Amino acid sequence: MNSTRRTFLKTAVTLTAALPLARLPLGAADGTVPSAASSAPAGGLLFDPAELPHIRANLELPRLAELRAMLKGIDLEAETNFLREQLRLNNHVVDFMRAWQAVQNCSFAHAVWGEQAHLDVALLALRRLCDYKRWDYFLEGGKDTIGLQRAPEATIACCYALDWLGEKVPADLRAKVEEKIVTEGAPACYRTLYGMKYPDRVRGWGFDPEDDYQFRYDLSRWPLILNATNLKIIPTCGLGLAAAWFHGRHPDAAKWLELSRQSARAFATMYGDDGSYDEGVGYWGYTTMHLAMVAEALHRRLGLEDRKLINYPGTIRYALTMAMPCAGEPISDPNLNKAYNATPKYTYQPEFDLVNFCDSGGAMDVSVAAWVAGINSDPISQHVAANIGTLRHLQAAVWYRAKLPVQAPGADLDDVRLSNDWVVARTGWKPQDIVVAFRSGGPANHEHADRNSVILKAHGERLFHDPFKAGYSPTLPRWLLRQTEAHTAVLIAGKGHQYHDGKEGTNSSWASARILDFRTGNDWMLATSDATEAYALVLPDTMRVLRTVVLLKPDVLLLLDQVELKTSAAVQVRFQVFNEDNKATAVADGMTFRIARPLASAHATVAARGNFRIGTGKLALPDSDGTFPYVEVESAPATRHTLLTATTTAPAGSAHGALALESFGEGWRITGQHLGRTIRATLEIPSDGLPRLKV
């Protein structure tokens, strides 16, 4: 019997006697650990009963219709059958997750609407969680559970459920759930965060051999690797909620609170001063919401103020920058109902599209924006909460305030260089607007080998694409979608820049790029990125890899690629095509190529200092994974390569104008007509190699 369990059993009588207490003592608001003797009443972990009318009203709003439909649409009969008959006690990835979600969703639904059927499923799911020997599928030293996702998620769900359901949880079940939290959930979170804080003291992390998870990685460096990832903030949140729930009732609650708050403060440095987040906007939503959840719970319950750890208004602007709504019909994933296989599955919904650098997925949840809008009285955050992305988490029903002031983004957010050297330029946030995203910057967890890659969206369609749903395991064919050759990027002799082999998971590479120049003017943006270091790590003859992106608003994109090598080699520039629905075409013709989608097309003219050819191809993936076409411009073997690609975009049915590309000295002139607009631009390349734009 471990010490935590012994401690719990010694205090079980006292704890059980305290179980009906719905509120715990409130502490000081100055950041000190609150005293158990404080007499001020505590608030709920997420909401108080007095807030239920507001929550019910929110769930009737069109903006929260998806969340309401999820809660009202729970198949209670199917969930009951699953929990009673199908739940596998050695499966945490799917079954355990479904169980804790049933706890949280049904408890919330019952608290809001009071239906007995939701309560019945919530109580059954609580009992079934207690049947699990462990609450996660990772171990330290081969015996002690560490909690990276499932243990903290279950801890959060159970603490929430006990808070929301109150005395409707039978005393015996409440005692079992609380025992499981203090002997399995909270210690697993604590052990994880302690190992990240002191990796030299870790006795080896590994997979639980009794769990049926099919993918196995080398976890020996995970205490170091995960310390800078979203998998730190999830146990931080779980431990913090457990500390708040057991404050004054369990001897370990104070140390849980201390480590949770330390971890949150340490993790806050993972955000840029401007709020940018390196793992991509998909993981941003999940991560930032958990940071807010623990801060809100500690404030409501204990009076602690951790709600300003990061630049929250800035991080909502980061999400706004990454929004890229498109048009057209949703595209269902044919593998949606297949068993989990370390490849993301979801329906692509164009209106929720985003700049999907890294493993960002196809939509971002902005539930945390509602919290930021209220806490910071920030009208742009309220605009995001009301209009951008999705609100799919329960917290949104609590945090959303429909009557807060709203401010749409201004021109200052049209052309943005984030602190992590990601660049996004746009003409607006409507589906027909143009968005160009340029991926420079350094490595990060969940990254791809995508330095200097570009995404282009125009007239409702993705035209230069960054593929979705890359595999999370190197044993899967879709691991290829993480590589440079699957991005709109440069290859040298058919090879991309440095990336890892995946044996440790989706951790960071060593590849870095940096923005050397970023300028904006009246209806234009220019950015130059240097990815030389990333390529030289695996291609030592690399001397220079520069890409300059110029958006001549609204419809013309220029890409200038400059590559210098010690020895002669061919260089390829790829343009990926969005073809999830098999409705895209890509055609090469002499010095031009065309990419067409149902709602829009791109027509590109290419010029170079040397010989080149343009062709089409598709990524080497099985037919069952789909067809991934691309256009490739190949510059003949040489030590110095300069390729200019001038692209016009137009709505379907509209003719493209003709652009002429003329070289002079070290520069280029771009002239022509397109959609009734005269194009005259010059790219001058001085001795430093950084192009200068004249329009």
Descriptive overview:
The chain is 32% helix and 22% strand. With 695 residues, the chain is an alpha+beta fold. It has a domain at 414-694: Beta-galactosidase, Chain A, domain 5 (Distorted Sandwich). The strands form four sheets. Strands 9, 10, 11, 12, 13, 14, 15, 16, 17 and 18 form a ten-stranded antiparallel β-sheet that branches. The chain has a five-stranded antiparallel β-sheet with strand order 4-5-6-7-8, with no helix packed on it. Helix 6 packs parallel to helix 8. Mean pLDDT is 93; it is low at 1-39.
Offer a few descriptive terms.
single chain; 695 residues; Beta-galactosidase, Chain A, domain 5
N-C termini distance: 75 Å
Give the second-level CATH assignment, the architecture of the domain at 414-694. Distorted Sandwich
Q: Whole-number average pLDDT?
A: 93
Which band does the percent of strand residues land in?
15-25%
* Helix percent band: 25-40%
Number of helices: 18
Q: Compute the number of strand runs.
A: 22
- The top-level CATH class of the domain at 414-694 is Mainly Beta
Largest sheet: 10 strands, antiparallel
SSE-based structural type:
alpha+beta
Low-confidence stretches: 1-39
Shape: globular
Radius of gyration: 27 Å
What is the fold named in CATH at topology level of the domain at 414-694?
A: Beta-galactosidase, Chain A, domain 5
